[in-house]
Amino acid sequence: FLTEIDHMPKGSVKKIRYCLKSILKRGNQDYELPQSEFSNQGFYQDRFLTQEELHEILDLLDVQYREVATFMAYTGLDISDVLTLEWSSVDMKAKMIRTERRKTMHNSDTIKIKIPMVKMVEDVLKNRSKVRSLQDRRIFRITGDIHINRRKNLQLHWKRACQASSVDWNV
Fold it and tell me: Across the chain, where does the E strand assignment appear?
């Protein structure tokens, strides 16, 4: 089984091995799993969108998804970090976003980061603040989406926009 999963992406292998190790340790505290070979080298991106390509795809997205995708592109934050970002993390006067990144479910370490705002990010935040209700802690509320589906819906809309564009982008 371990040999079979070693051909999966490294992140998946780590999660499976973590769960398996937790289960096996309940029966034998001293048990150690053999080291993994990680024969799957994972995904390494070697092509990046140009500004023109990015904006062609962004223009094909609904406004709510366009704002999230723009925010991701210009801050470097991933989907889960953007969708959970709160207004308390934003300092409009200093033009700075201060937040924490949590990368894995079994690692409680957080990385505190500061992201300077570029004009595109500032424009998105100003637009979001116009439609914000006072009880909203989170910056992005995607209409009609429940929490579990937000990430999938954004990915689906991004994929459709890529397919409708002239951009050759299959990531």
Answer: 90-91, 96-101, 111-116
